[in-house]
Specification:
A hairpin with a 2-residue loop joins strand 3 and strand 4. The strands form three sheets. Strands 6-5-7-8 form a four-stranded mixed beta sheet. Strands 1-2 form a two-stranded antiparallel sheet. Strands 3-4 form a two-stranded antiparallel sheet. It is 49% helix and 13% strand. Helix 1 runs antiparallel to helix 4 and helix 2 packs across helix 4. The protein has 241 residues and is of the alpha+beta class. It starts with a helix and ends in a 17-residue tail after the last helix.
């Protein structure tokens, strides 16, 4: 399951970047060019092959990937990524049997090794749309994999909601038909939005105002500040996505 989704993301990113200027700055990652985004993605693939997973998705782990390929041309980065993607994709479906620890430190804290597949797919999806936004492309927002990532993002909020002792809310994807309760009681509010907006919002690509402007039933104010992945923050300026 993970292998196929990760390979699909790779294929889309490589096809999208063909004949585009890779030195353009990426608004969602303003310190990076498009080439740097691809360096990061290629670095993840290499790390999967080599079993370098401690600190997954942390700033240090990510920066090391960028630094390792900083002097490598964009074309060569693509060549290196292509050389690792098959093994990396397959590894995401087989992390535990490959002899890795049951839990590893990550940007989300200690997580089961089995969770790294979903995290890797979410990462490549977000960066795909970071790249699409950079070049003004609005396509691809109905991908099946987005529904999968949105569901995972919502489930990731259960820990923060519990830590903040927040009431239950319900999140519903209007285009997938899926819905999730965050909490155990009756929902005090409901958010209804497309999976793409749910994924991008919880994934730190929306401002607080943009999150409030989504389809809420009930008062969003008590909840909205907690509706972002714990290692991320809401944007201060809009991506105009």
């Amino acid at each position: 399951m993970y292998a196929e989704a990760y390979r699909r993301g790779y294929d889309r990113v490589v096809a999208f970047m063909e004949d585009r200027d890779p030195e353009i700055r990426v608004p969602a990652c303003p310190e990076w060019t498009a080439a740097d985004v691809v360096r990061h993605l290629a670095g993840i693939s290499s790390d999967m092959v080599e079993g370098v997973v401690e600190g997954f998705a942390s700033e240090e782990w990510t920066q090391r990937q960028i630094d390792a390929l900083a002097d490598v041309s964009f074309d060569e980065v693509l060549v290196r990524w292509a050389s690792t993607i098959d093994v990396a994709s397959e590894r995401l479906d087989d992390m535990e049997s490959a002899g890795d620890a049951e839990r590893v430190p990550s940007a989300l804290g200690m997580v089961p090794t089995s969770a790294l597949g979903a995290m890797a797919i979410s990462d490549i999806l977000h960066h795909e749309f970071d790249l699409r936004n950079t070049y003004g492309d609005r396509s691809g927002r109905d991908l099946m994999d987005i529904h999968f990532a949105a569901a995972g993002h919502v489930r990731s909020l259960r820990g923060p909601f519990s830590a903040y002792d927040l009431p239950t809310i319900r999140v519903e994807s209007v285009d997938s038909g899926m819905g999730w309760d965050i909490g155990r009681g009756d929902p005090a509010a409901t958010l209804r939005a497309p999976s793409f907006q749910i994924m991008r919002g919880i994934g730190g690509r929306r401002t607080r105002g943009e999150m409030i402007a989504l389809g809420w039933e009930g008062d969003p104010d008590p909840f909205v500040d907690a509706m972002v992945l714990p290692h991320l923050a809401m944007r201060e300026t809009s991506l105009r996505e």
